[in-house]
Each structure stands twice: as C-alpha cells, then as structure tokens.
Amino acid sequence: MSVNEREWGDVQTHEATSPEPSCVSRKSKESMPVPPDLSDGAVTSDPEVETDKVIISVMPCLTCTDPDCQTLIRQRVKDQHKTSMKKKYESLFEGIKLDENQTLLNRIYTQLYIIERESEGVNKEHEVLQMEKTSRTQDTPIYCNDSFKPLHEPGCEEKDKIKNVLTKGIAGIGKTVSVQKFILDWTEGKANQDVDFMFVLPFRELNLIKDQKYSLHRLLLDFHPELQDLDLKIYEECKVVFIFDGLDESRMTLMFSDDEKVLDVNESSSVAVLVSNLIRGELLPSALIWITSRPAAANQIPSKYISRVTEIQGFNESQKKEYFRKRISDEHQASRIISHIRRLRSLNIMCHIPVFCWISATVLQNLLKQDDSAEIPQTLTEMYIHFLLTQINMRNQKYDERDPEKLLQSNRDVIVKLAELAFKQLMKGNVMFYEEDLIESSIDVTDASVYSGICTEIFKEESVIHQRKVYCFIHLSFQEFLAALYLFYCNGVENEESVKLFMNEEYQTSGGITGTGETQICLYDLLKAAVDKSLESKNGHLDLFLRFLLGVSLESNQRLLQDLLTHTVKSSETIKRITQYIKDKITGDEGLSADRCINLYLFLLEMNNQTLDIQEFVKSENCSVNKLSLAHCSTIAYMLQISDKFDPKKISTSDEDRRRLISAVVKCRKALCAGCNLTAQCCKCLSSSLQSSNSPRELDVSHNDLQDSGVKLLSDGPMSLHCQLNILRSSDCMVTEKGCCYLASALSSNTSHPRELDLSYNHSGQSLVKLLSDPNYRLDKLNMDHGEEIVTEPQKYAYNLTLDPNTANTHLTLSERNRKMTHVEEKRPYADHPERFDECPQVLCKESLTGRCYWEAEWGGNINIAVAYKGISRKGKSNDSLFGYNVKSWSLHCFNDRFTVYHDNKSTEISVSSHQSKRVGVYVDVSAGTLSFYSVSDTHTLTHLHTFNSTFTEPLYAGFGVHPD
Predict the structure, then answer these.
(1) Span 76-101, mean pLDDT?
(2) Cβ 933 vs Cβ 865: under 8 Å
(3) Are residues 123 and 251 in the same domain?
(4) In the predicted model, is pLDDT for residue 19 greater than 50?
(5) How far is CA 119 from the centre of its chain?
(6) pLDDT value of residue 30
(7) Is residue 715 classed exposed, middle or buried when 0-12, 13-18 and 19+ CB atoms within 10 A define those classes?
(8) Stronger pLDDT, 537 or 163, i.e. the higher one
(9) What angle do CA 273, 278, 279 make, to 5 degrees?
(10) Which terminus of the chain, N or C, has fewer Cβ atoms within 10 Å?
C-alpha cells in the first residue's frame, strides 16, 4: 500500500535500524502541532513551505504500546504544555488588560516576602487594617519556587514530604503573581524540573461549572487541551502539581467527609467533589497540591490535609524600594516618591501590598510629571481620588468626544455606575461579579474593561469555560473607596434607597434623610451612623469603607472630585462635630476594645485630624483605672507608631505599662526608652525590632539597669544585616567591659550601623576604648566618658542635706539640726520671709543639687518627697506652689503602702508589693536629666520605684511636704 492511498493510517517502515520508534503517521501541515519553541525568540514559520503540501512526519501513534513510543508522546505533550503555559504566564498586566499595560513578568517581578506560618484560626478583622495595626513578622523567608521543599533546619527530615501547601495573603498581596512566577520559572527550566506537569485550576473559573459533572481527566482537558494525546497512566506515573488559586473566591462547598470518594481520573462527579478528593489524597495521592487564599477563607480546609502553611507578607522595605526603582525609570523621581511614602505611615504600610505600590507609582508619577512641586497626597482617600482622576484623564485622551460638557457627563455616568456596582456588591459581600451584576448597574459589558481602567477582567484572556468573563476591581480597597464615593453621592442627591440600605434603622425615621434640604444635618447623621456601625461591627468588614466615607466628606477632597459630583457640601462644621463625636467615643467609652479604639483613631487621621493627644487618652475615662489594660496599651502603642517617635516617658503610666508599650518600637524611627526600668524581655523585644528592615534609626536605653546580660540580648539586633540603627545610646546601664564587648562584636558583624555610640558612665575599660576607636568600626561619634566611674550603687553619691527654715511653712516644725520635719496644727511663729511657703505645708533644703546626688528620707503619714527649682512659687495654695503639680517640681507621694509620682499635674501610680519600708532613696543626675526614686529596705537594698527624665534648666533643691488631701 502506498502512502497516498491511506487516510491518516500508520505507515510501517521496513528499515532494519531506525533512530526513532517504528511508528509514524501521515498528516497535513495544518493538522500538525507547532514544534515547541523553548527559545526566547518569537516562533516564526517558513514562508517557502506551501500550506497545502502533504508531508510525512515521524510521529508516535496513540495506540502503540511500545514504551519508547509512549515516552516520546509524553515528552512531546510535556513540551507543548510548557510552551502553552509559558505563553499564558510570561506577561503581567498591571491594571486593566490592555496591550499597553502588558509587561514581561521577569522584567518587573520583585521577590515577595513569604514566611512559613503555623495553621491558626480565622482572623475576623478587616485584613488591610489588621496589617496596619500589627508588626510584620521577621522569619526565615521562603521563595515561592521552594514551596514544596522542606526547610534545612534541625528536625526537618527528608522523609517529611510536603504534599499540600496552603498560601495565605490579603487581597492584592501577590498570591496569583507568585503562582504565575512559579509556573514561568518551571517552563523556562529555572526551577522544579523534577515536575512533569502543572495544572492551574482557578476557583473563579471553576465557579462557572460548579453545577456540572466532570471526570478529572475531562476537566483537565477543558483547561489544558494539549493533554488529549496522553495515556491516563501519566497522572500516576508523572510528578504533577495542581494549583488551586483563590480559595476565597470559591462559590463551591468543599466536602471533606468520607461520604463521596472518587478514586479514578475517569470517574465523574461534581467539581467540588473532585477538588475535595484531590486535596484529601483519595484521588491521585502522589499529586502535589498548592492552594492560595485570603486569610478569612483559609479555614475551609481542615488542617490535617495541609502539610505547610505559608503567608505572603508582601514587600518589605528593601523590596518596596526595588519595585519602585524597577517601575520608575527616572532615578530622581523614584527616590523622591520612595522618600515621600516612607514619611507617611499609612501609605508606607499600605505599600506592603504590590497593587498599592502600583497605584502609588501611577499617581505620584503623574503628579510630578505635571508639576515637580505638586502637593503629594497625604491620606489613603487623597491617593485613591488622584488614582481615579488619573484613570479618567487616560480615558479622555482616547475618547473621540471633543465637547467638554459631554465628556464630563460621560465620565460622571461611568463613575457613578461603577460606584453603584461597588456599593451594591460590597453590601452583599461580593468582591467578584459576573455580567449579570454589571447589567444590574446599567454597565455596558462590552465596554466595561476598556473605557475606564477601574473595573477590569481578572483573566488575561477569555475564560476557557463557556467563554464567560469574571470582573472585579483592581483591589478590594478600591471597591470600598468607590462604594464610599457612591454613598456620599447618593446622600447629596437624596437617593434615599441607597442611604437607607446602609444606615441603621434608628436613622431611617429621624428626619435627617427625608429630603428636608438640611444637608449638613443629613451628612452628620450619615457620618455618625458610619461611626456607630464601625463600633457595632464584630469583624470590621466595613472599616476601610467607612474610613473612605469620612475622607471623601472633607471639603478639600470634594474639590478634587467636583467635576464628578453634581454638588459639593460645606462640611467644615459637620467635620468638627463628627471629629468631636469620635474623640468622645475614644476617651469616654469604657467598653471599647483596642481594635475599635485604633479604628476610630484611623478615622481621625483620614480627616487630617491629629489633635487627639496620647496623654489626653491616658487621662480619659476609658483609661481611668489604676493600671492600663492590654487593650489600652495596644491603642497607645499604635498611636505612638503613627507619631513616628516612641517616648513612653511622656505617658504618665507605670513602668509595667511602659514596658508593655515597647512593641511600638518596631515601627518608630526614634525610640527613647531611657530610664524605663527595662527588663530582659524588653531587651528581647527591642532586639527583635532592630532586626527588622524597618527598624528604628535611633535607640536610647540609657539609665536602665541592663547590666551585661541585658546588653547581650540587645546586641543580637545590630548584628542583623536588616538593622538600620544609626544612633545607640546606652549610658549608665551598669555594663562592664564584658557587656561592652558584646556590642563591639555586634558592630564588627555589621559595620554599616550604627554611626553614633554612647557608652558613657559604664565600666567599659581602656582596651575597649582603643578597639572601638579603630576606623574599621566606622563610628562617626563615640562617647565613652567616665568609663571608670561605673555606678553599681547610687549610695556612692550620698549627699548631706539640711532643711532651710526660711522656706518652711508655719505648720511645719523643724528639729534634729534641721534634718527632721513634722506637721503641726498650730502655726509656728516664724518671721516673714520671701522664700517661705505661706500656704502650702512644704519646705526646701538649703543645698542646691549639682552633678550626681543621693539622699534618703524616712517618712510617716501622708508625705511628698520632692525635687524643685528654686523658682517655684511660694505664695498661695495653687498648683504653681504644690510639689509635683507644675513644671518646676517633681514629687513622690507616699501614703501607707502606696506610691504615686507627680509632675506638671500629671500622676502615675506605682505598682509595688505590700509591706514596703518607710525609707525612700532619691538619686538625681543633673547633667543626664534623670531623677530616680527607690524604696530602701532594712538591709539597704534598693527597689526602683520610678525615674523621671527631663532637661533641668534651673538650680535644683530637695523638698518635703504634706500631701494635700
């Protein structure tokens, strides 16, 4: 039989030796697959070859059982599969799916920070706010290509195979891009070459066929048609990886009971059952499974079916810089943008999310291009408004309409429709939507992903399942922003239906939204309802939406949006009222959790209001207890982080409370912890914060009894290559030469940091002075003064004091050579003197305090032991005269077994054990600005009570008095 007489049959060759398996098939060129092109160049065809020419190609037939033939089939399909996957995943679309937004992934990809995580419960807090309020974990990073590789650590045996990996991460953090990079590196031969096939089954696509019956093989053919030539044995014989991207987007119910098992790839069942059996290992038990999910949905899969849990934390500080420098070709502009974002805490935190980096780069590049001195957005709302305006301008440049009014109306119609979609779907809890959802909001589905740039197709091409498309906003936070914009718009145009959908029932009949024309009252009611709704929420699911609503209400932001809004509202008085309402809630609601307190504080920041003083919060009813609760400390810690400077001494709390606030250090540029009675645990916390790439630039731990052990714990921080510390002050920390050597060792490990070191008043030793003076340590400033004057006991600075009769109030009697004071009811006949306290029962000592001084006093009754400037008022009984109630004096109030310190009319109760002695020691270091009080036992052991840190500007004198009842 000749070749031309057979229709697609096998042609047997009769050569005794053949370099190929002895099976070939006859095909036209049109029917033959393009040979896989694994080069970096484009695939081209030969124009000289006629398209209708019949050729003979040596190809394995599908029915042949020869092992070599099957191996060739498998390799050919594998090559085709890799080619197909490379074509699909080699490009990344930033924003909408338009050709101009297409970028090669390898050119712009920035490594994400991924860590191994223990499986834990569901966090019910809004994920973006959770990220703002918590410190980023510093653990050993895992590259996405190593997801299935065990860590090379003690206890990790090779036999501990990692089969199922669950990767968590908030919306937009880079889960899908990590999947894309994982696949691309495999197709290009860079990683995981022991894997034969990778099958990607996104949940957003599986949703479209969730009600249909499929076998696993049939399902894979729909997603990967090139598999049709394979023998089904390959699923068990080859190493395959199934990737299920976006568990949080699933509208299927996964089942993990034993009720319905599927064991064969040809057995049909629902898609949910197939996926569940793959995860459980009933179907293809050797297959590797990778699942990605937002945190809230991760618990859908029982932990026993997960071998490893990883978490994508997005970009760390260095990765953020790398992204902006790759994204922005102008180095000067990139540096300016990076510098601006680092200065603004909320924006900097949000830039851990890659998609927010893209939004920020888009906005800031556009602003600086138009005007190099342009005012840069300060809040999230401002950034998102500018992004919206940028997208509108891009649309205008491509739009044929030249009439400005028609163009404006067209833009308004588009944005309002998209905002309506965002609002309605957010109220339903949907972040993914289909064509019918768009139609409900009167959006033309043929234009939605082209004309705006705000609502975009998720897929880079049409879904392979039923040719349907799925839509979403570029990020959940942008949906929340547009939803807030829509609600504000509806409130202005008196669209009661949407407003009532949002507001609490109590406001729906209040008359504020019934179209009475009282716009400001209406707006206040709306904003008040938003605040109340936030306080009532258990999971904070609308917190960011409400934050945007408050931000949009500002007149300055309304002006930015004036072309889109049909009206603007004079809201300054409303903003004042709602600001006060929020402050009253923060300072007056005793039952408010730390989470809600912090969220209300963020509301204030979004309205450009930073007037809530930390001290005001501490003295409020919310914190008017003897000891701050953990919730209060968490709130204060967050407020300190936002302020960018950590100084717990400015908060009149106990030493214990101050130590609990140390967690705030990790996000502050400057941490001033001098005289805070730090413990070993505090040193560990500080050391951990120094190992972060966002670590403090300045740390002051002076006047703490750290000793060598504390400094050893602290030294682990500067040893880290991530450490950014420039200034370290550890004066008077009871450190010997041994402890100073720990610091020297840390500096030798990381000579780039710090630049300034203060080890004064420690027993550092001359050899260490010589060592640290070596230029290799690159210290710009080294202070080791008084290195031989180590203070092991303040008593070494004992100072004799005598009471000054000319200052004694007439109800005080002095005795024992003016070294004892007693309060009496009957006035003493003292002569008039301008330095006498005429109303307050107080007395000062004769001797001024200079340098370092220590003295002790025994007490009984209700007594103040104080230090004051000579210039303290002596007249009357006002706060200007009372020890501790003004800026010119500091006092320790002693009564029974209780101690309270006072300064500038601010008090801090000191937590001490019962049965304290009736003797107090006072130690002052004038030049260092420290004043310490101690309880002195019968064996002369000192127990630290409190340390004030200040800058003494006048001569100091010891004083004593009767505390006012």
Answers:
(1) 74
(2) yes
(3) yes
(4) no
(5) 20
(6) 38
(7) buried
(8) 163
(9) 100
(10) C
- pLDDT of 692-705, one tens digit each? 766 788 888 888 88
Strands (E) located in 504-564: none
C-alpha angle 544-549-553 in degrees, rounded to nearest 5: 145
CA distances from 34 to 226, 227, 652 (A): 12, 15, 76
The three-class DSSP label of residue 916 is coil
**Cβ-contact 953, 850 below 8 angstroms:** no
Task: Classify residue 100 by its DSSP letter.
Answer: G
Q: Is residue 517 part of a domain?
A: no
Hey, what amino acid is at 195? Answer: V
Residues 148 and 169 in one domain: yes
State the Cα–Cα distance between residues 351 and 344, nearest whole angstrom. Answer: 11
Asked, for residue 611, whether it belongs to a domain, the answer is no
- The three-class DSSP label of residue 924 is strand
CA distance 706 to 849: 26
Residue by residue, DSSP assigns 37-59 as --SSSPP---TTS-TT-EEEE--
C-alpha span between 460 and 202 (Å, rounded): 13
DSSP string across 407-451:
HHHHHHHHHHHHHHHHHHHHHHT-S-B-HHHHHHTT--TTTHHHH
Would you state the pLDDT for residue 634? Answer: 60
Same-domain status, 344 and 217 = no
Predicted local confidence at residue 678, as pLDDT: 80
Amino acid at 725: L
Q: Is 728 helix (H, G, I), strand (E, B) or coil?
A: strand
pLDDT for the residue numbered 219: 93
Tokens 């653990």 -> residue: 139
Question: Are 588 and 617 a contacting pair, CB within 8 Å?
Answer: no
Considering the domain architecture, whether residues 764 and 879 belong to the same structural domain is answered as no
Q: Any residues with CB less than 8 A from the CB of 943 and at least 6 apart, and which?
A: 912, 916, 934, 935, 936, 937
Q: Is residue 382 part of a domain?
A: no
Contact of 920 with 936, CB cutoff 8 Å: yes
Residues in the chain: 965
Q: What is the pLDDT of residues 266-309, one digit of tens each?
A: 999 999 999 999 999 999 999 999 999 988 788 889 999 999 99
> Is residue 512 within 8 Å of residue 522, measured between CB atoms?
yes
CA-nearest of 654, 648, 609, 662 to 627 is 654
- In this structure, are residues 351 and 315 in contact, taking their beta carbons and an 8 Å threshold? yes
- The CA distance from 663 to 654, in Å, is 16
**Dmax over Cα atoms in the chain, in whole Å?**
141
Please determine, for residue 863, whether its predicted confidence score (pLDDT) is greater than 90: yes
| Domain carrying residue 200 | 111-312
Domain count, the chain: 6
Kindly give the residue spans of alpha helices, DSSP state H, lying in 553-651: 555-560, 572-588, 594-606, 614-618, 630-643
Q: What is the dihedral of CA 538, 541, 544, 546, to 10 degrees?
A: -70
381 touches 603 (CB < 8 A): no
State yes or no: cis peptide before 141, omega within 30 of 0.
no
In what order do the strands lie in the sheet containing 852-858? 852-858, 919-925, 930-936, 942-949
Q: Tell me which amino acid residue 948 is.
A: F
Show which of 276, 294, 312 is a domain's final residue. 312
Note whether 534 and 540 are within 8 A (CB).
yes
Distance in angstroms (rounded) separating the CA atoms of residues 547 and 606: 7
Residue type, 168: K
Element (H, E) at 269: strand 268-270
The angle at the Cα of 325, spanning 322 to 330, to the nearest 5 degrees, equals: 170
What is the CATH number for 814?
A: 2.60.120.920
Judge whether residue 249 has pLDDT over 60: yes
Which residue, among 245, 262, 80, has the nearest Cα to 169 in the 3D structure? 245
Among 25-34, 704-713, 829-838, where is mean pLDDT lowest? 25-34
- Residue type, position 804, single letter: D
The predicted-structure confidence for 899-920, as pLDDT tens digits, reads as follows: 899 999 888 888 776 666 889 9
Residue type, 793: E
Specify whether 824 is located in the same domain as 933: yes
Angle between helices 331-343 and 354-370 (to 10 degrees): 120
- The first and second tokens of residue 584, run together, are 């009253």
